[in-house]
Amino acid sequence: MTTTDAGTSGGTAAAAACHGPQSESDPRTGAGSVTDTAAESPAPGGHGYAKQKDAHIKRLRRIEGQIRGLQRMLEEDVYCIDILTQVSASTKGLQSFGLQLLEEHLRHCVADAAAKGPDAIDAKVQEATKAIERMLRS
User: 4-8, 33-37, 97-101: which has the highest mean pLDDT?
Assistant: First the structure.
C-alpha cells in the first residue's frame, strides 16, 4: 500500500508507480484511509509483500486474536496490568508487521524506482520516510 500525507494533493507519481490503492491522511487526525484506485493497481502479485502474503495474513489473524482477547479480558474483569500486558503484546505485533511490510516495500518498490531514475527514487524515499514518521508517531 502506498501513502500520502495531508500536505500533498491526492497522490504522487511514485505512489502510482508502486502499485495499488492510495491512502490519504485525515488532516484532523493524521489517520489514513484507503481509496481504491483500480486503474493504478498492478496485476496480482505485483506488490512487494506478494511473496509473503499468506504469512502476513496468518500474522494479522494472530494479532486479531490478541485484540479479541483484549475484549474478552475486559468482559471478564481481568486485572488491569494483565490487560496492559496484552495491549503491549498486540502493539508489538502490529509494529513488527509494519516494519516487515516497510522492509518489503523498500526492497521491491524503492528498488524498482531506482531502476527508473533519480526522480522516481527520490519520490519513493520521501514516501518511505513519511511512512516511517507515521509509524514512529504511533
Answer: 97-101
